[in-house]
Amino acid sequence: MNISRTEFANCKTLIKHKEEVEDVEKKMEIEIRRGPWTVEEDMKLISYISLHGEGRWNSLSRSAGLNRTGKSCRLRWLNYLRPDIRRGDISLQEQFIILELHSRWGNRWSKIAQHLPGRTDNEIKNYWRTRVQKHAKLLKCDVNSKQFKDTIKHLWMPRLIERIASTQNVEFIPNHYSPENSSVATATSSTSSSESMASSFYGGDQVAYGTSDPNSGNWFNGGDAFETLWSFDELNKWLLQ
DNA sequence: AACAGTCCCAACCGCGAATGA
DNA sequence: CTCATTCGCGGTTGGGACTGT
């Protein structure tokens, strides 16, 4: 077994630390709060961060007077309380981006989330697990199988493009569009490939639409469940071809 | 109305990596 | 170099909401 010195040291530290924490918690009967956050806790966290900023979560938790772990505070802030969190249904465009980026990077939720302003990795992960995996289950195929990936690439994504093109004007193309990325113009017509559409939306590997205002009526809005894009029978027929 | 089954999401957990003393 | 602490990621789960019978 190959293990680096650092890894070995980390293992030892982890075990020792865990034992110590458990020991102290037992002895002192410290009541670390778990479960759903109360309004008061939220207010404490928000007001503390607005005054002192985020980071150093363990000490932040103590200083803010919260009987929570630093981890719990961080999660609550990042996934729920942050002011730039975008709520509501995942739009068609966002669905498209998730499908496209997942096909490239797999379960790299945080990386995918970087390309969806206001969406958290947790939200995207939940979306994938509840919606996309549900379809794979219905079709009785593995979500990582080539068959299912092909379904996404050749059926779902083109359908999404059609729907997006039919519901959006050219004016609603992403605001990072530039003349050198002229594929966008054709991408919004029904004959484009999903690849060119994808690159037009999120600018390849760069975060290209970070300036989109989540609250304005831009191309991000107008969510629509992708279940409405096709029927289950239709999907099944395609799979059996 | 009552119950059972399913869906969905907030929150937790374990782990590895990074950072600082 | 070692040890302690913190951060961030991906996987999992508990329970409320919703839907069907």
From TrEMBL:
<keyword id="KW-0677">Repeat</keyword>
<keyword id="KW-0805">Transcription regulation</keyword>
<dbReference type="GO" id="GO:0005634">
    <property type="term" value="C:nucleus"/>
</dbReference>
<keyword id="KW-0804">Transcription</keyword>
<dbReference type="InterPro" id="IPR044676">
    <property type="entry name" value="EOBI/EOBII-like_plant"/>
</dbReference>
<feature type="domain" description="HTH myb-type">
    <location>
        <begin position="29"/>
        <end position="85"/>
    </location>
</feature>
<dbReference type="InterPro" id="IPR017930">
    <property type="entry name" value="Myb_dom"/>
</dbReference>
<feature type="domain" description="Myb-like">
    <location>
        <begin position="29"/>
        <end position="81"/>
    </location>
</feature>
<protein>
    <recommendedName>
        <fullName>MYB transcription factor</fullName>
    </recommendedName>
</protein>
<dbReference type="Pfam" id="PF00249">
    <property type="entry name" value="Myb_DNA-binding"/>
</dbReference>
<dbReference type="InterPro" id="IPR009057">
    <property type="entry name" value="Homeodomain-like_sf"/>
</dbReference>
<feature type="domain" description="HTH myb-type">
    <location>
        <begin position="86"/>
        <end position="136"/>
    </location>
</feature>
<dbReference type="GO" id="GO:0003700">
    <property type="term" value="F:DNA-binding transcription factor activity"/>
</dbReference>
<feature type="domain" description="Myb-like">
    <location>
        <begin position="82"/>
        <end position="132"/>
    </location>
</feature>
<keyword id="KW-0539">Nucleus</keyword>
<dbReference type="InterPro" id="IPR001005">
    <property type="entry name" value="SANT/Myb"/>
</dbReference>
<dbReference type="GO" id="GO:0043565">
    <property type="term" value="F:sequence-specific DNA binding"/>
</dbReference>
<keyword id="KW-0238">DNA-binding</keyword>
